[in-house]
Write a structure and sequence with these properties.
Number of domains: 2
CATH topology of the largest domain: Leucine-rich repeat, LRR (right-handed beta-alpha superhelix)
InterPro entries: Leu-rich_rpt (IPR001611), LRR_dom_sf (IPR032675), STM4015-like (IPR047722)
CATH class of the largest domain: Alpha Beta
Strand content: 15-25%
Order of helices and strands: EEEHEHEHEEHEHEHEHEHEEE
CATH architecture of the largest domain: Alpha-Beta Horseshoe
Number of helices: 8
Number of strands: 14
Pfam families: LRR_6 (PF13516)
Protein name: Leucine-rich repeat domain-containing protein
Low-confidence stretches: none
Strand order of the largest sheet: 1-2-3-4-5-6-7-8-9-10-11-12
């Protein structure tokens, strides 16, 4: 399974790629699509990203745009997303209906996820008080100091290495409307240095009173995260919990089963796991009779050499 795919929708709207200068497709209504603006320096010449973004603003009826996706903005391993943040902040009086932003919609064919150079993305929140959804792909250079925002409902970070300072910044933020939080922790080799301790304010409950979905995913320490979640007060308020994509073994699954009841959940995602067949059955027997949808069919990859077994997160480089 491929995880970091190109988006096909955002904020409930289908994606439409803003055309190159030599293309003349029929454009949708400004508020009927999630507009993706991108520029591939290896396949295109002439108009650079900044020029394309200005043409987008001048062409589509910017004041009615609800969802915006930023794809490739040039050589993303060399030019960080600070330029994108600056463009978005400068356009705040033009994009007056903007409700959703995703920065870094690139696939592995464009750039490996850990090559994407991000930046401090919180100025986007400051510039758009009506924003409901923010998504980021790529963890290199990513910063998220503690922020305040009254209307943000969905926040997600897709990375092969999520800096601990980002996790701490999110956990210390004031986001009273936040309903959905997804974080891919990745691996230490690509900057994923977050610890379970960094999650403490979030797991204690009360920080995000509207939270109904929590994804703590794609981690080398997935068993430790599962053990912490097993006794975390925040779980009681959730409708869905996602611990997929990481190195989750029978140890982590046993901690979940021995912890607080999870039978109130609608869905528990444990895909990309390293469970034994007997543990899979224990999980199903414990949860499915209560109506919990348990996802655990996908297995993670592992290698064995000289008696040593190596296991991997779903997304790293």
């Amino acid at each position: 399974m491929s995880y970091a795919d190109s988006l096909t929708e955002l904020h409930g709207l289908p994606v439409f790629d803003f055309p190159r200068p030599d293309e003349e497709p029929r454009l949708p209504e400004p508020d009927a699509a999630a507009w993706r603006v991108s520029y591939n320096p290896y396949l295109e010449s002439g108009e650079i990203f900044e020029e394309r973004f200005e043409r987008f603003l001048s062409t589509v009826g910017a004041s009615r745009v609800r969802a915006l996706i930023i794809g490739q903005w040039g050589e993303v391993y060399d030019k960080d997303a600070g330029v994108i943040v600056d463009l978005l902040v400068a356009a705040k009086d033009r994009l007056t209906s903007l409700e959703a932003v995703f920065i870094g919609d690139l696939t592995a064919e464009d750039a490996e996820i850990s090559w994407i150079q991000q930046s401090d993305v919180t100025p986007v929140l400051d510039a758009y008080p009506g924003l409901r959804e923010l998504g980021i792909r790529g963890g290199s250079g990513l910063r998220f100091p503690a922020a305040e925002h009254q209307n943000l409902r969905r926040l997600r970070f897709e990375t092969g290495g999520l800096p601990g300072e980002v996790v701490r910044g999110v956990a210390d933020s004031e986001l009273p409307a936040l309903e959905y939080l997804e974080m891919w922790f990745g691996v230490e080799d690509y900057g994923g240095d977050a610890t379970v301790g960094d999650l403490a304010p979030l797991l204690s409950g009360g920080r995000f009173p509207a939270l109904r979905h929590l994804g703590l995913q794609n981690s080398e320490i997935q068993d430790e995260i599962a053990a912490a979640v097993a006794s975390a007060p925040v779980v009681a308020q959730l409708a869905s919990l996602d611990l997929s994509m990481g190195v989750l073994t029978d140890e982590g699954a046993a901690a979940l089963l021995d912890g607080q009841p999870l039978t109130h959940l609608r869905r528990l995602d444990l895909d990309h796991n390293y469970f034994s067949a007997s543990m899979e059955q224990r999980l199903r027997d414990a949860l499915e009779p209560s109506g919990v949808e348990v996802a655990l069919s996908e297995k993670g990859d592992e290698d064995e050499y000289d008696g040593e077994v190596d296991r991997y997160t779903a997304v790293a480089e």
